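=== RUN LOG ===
request id: a7f3
mode: sequence -> structure
chains: 1
length: 469
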Amino acid sequence: MRQPRRRPRRRARHWGLALAVSSVLTACAIAPPPDRAELTRQALAQTELPAAWKFATTPGEFDAATLGFDLAPDLLALIREAQANNPDLRVAATRIDQSRSAVKAAGASLAPYLGIGGQAGDSAIPSSSMAMNGLALIVNWEIDVWGKTRSAQAASREQSLAVELDAIYARQSIAAAVVKGWLAATEAERQLALAQEAVMLSEKQLALVEIGQKVGRDTRQDIATARVAARNSRNQLLQSEQAVNAAKRSLEILVGRYPAAEIAVASALPEQITPLPGGLPSDLAERRPDLQAAESRFRAAFHNVEAAQKAKLPTISLVAGVGHLNNNLLVLQEDLKNPVWGITGTFLAPLFNNGALDAQIEIKTAQQQEATVLYAKTMLNALNEIEGGLHADRLLTDRHRLLSAQLADQQAVVELQRVQLKVGKGSQYQLQQQQLSLVASRMNLLRLQNERLIQRVNLHLALGGIYKT
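=== RESULT ===
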């Protein structure tokens, strides 16, 4: 009587051993990249970050949600509309989806590959796989012994994070652009109203000079001079109309609307601007998404170098399968009975590849160095934006104070000229001339006021500001 076979039990032990070995081997952790402090030290070896901003005038901690002036509800609604419809942000959203799929693809080989296949034929060639007819379930698993696949997956994950941070920074930039577009359109409408007032005054002056010539008080040269001034005022009016149209169309494009120059804006610019504390330079990388994205790209490059180096190490794979065979050639072999199953291990170490693997290491190392330099460039640009913004904010505040005083003096001159006119010591022409100077001063102050507001928006963005809509 034949003894029962024990091979299945031995095979079961082989399976258990293979799984145990693979679980131990795959437990090897991948190397961590340098932290932010080390990256900053490497990237900015020749640059020493100060303890405080050089041009800051207001101490205190930076509040990312504080801009320094109030935003109208209509403007906040436009920001929400832009963040929902702006084409650049929609493109950024699709890139996030692509990067997340890339992460899945990079780590797919960490799990075994499972496939099913069938074959049928009547070939009798023993060395041909076509001599075996049937259906089989195959499992193929390349064990990530050294962490090459996990390093590649970590690199892909960091790249995906960088794409998401790019999208966050793009949302903040679009919000800031909407605010600046709103301010520009508002200023343009106010400048248009002042230009209309200047046209009215210059035409009144021309009429007065024409009357003066008839009575012998003014000459033809006086008329020509007044006519030139009137035409200059009309030209300024046309320029103002063009500026309003362009500003409104730009704002409509930002929010995803048709550029019809029909969008409504505020009737006046915000007047009160509160000081903006800048916080500490050392905290900047915690707030700015573009800096965080540059840091993630460095970490991705680090993991890519690790993956390239590990590609020179041997690979270990397990192949297992179970199938049902149907072939007359197997009838003579008693050991082959359905179902047929088995497991095979492979070991492959690269010996000669004509320098291809070394070249990949060199490429990835150079890319890591590039990522380090790009981080330094991003940091220096951010520092420049902030220091420049702090300095400009201080000077614009001083200039605004100066022009406000100048406007008050000009208003006083106009009132004094009215008094002179009442007592018979002045003329209507002189009063209108002073009124024209007053309009010019109001235009200059309005332009400076908008420049100050836009500079504040730029500084807020540079410091890592956000908009709570």
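=== NOTES ===
The first strand starts at residue 113 and ends at 119.
The CA atoms of residues 76 and 352 lie 63 Å apart.
=== END ===
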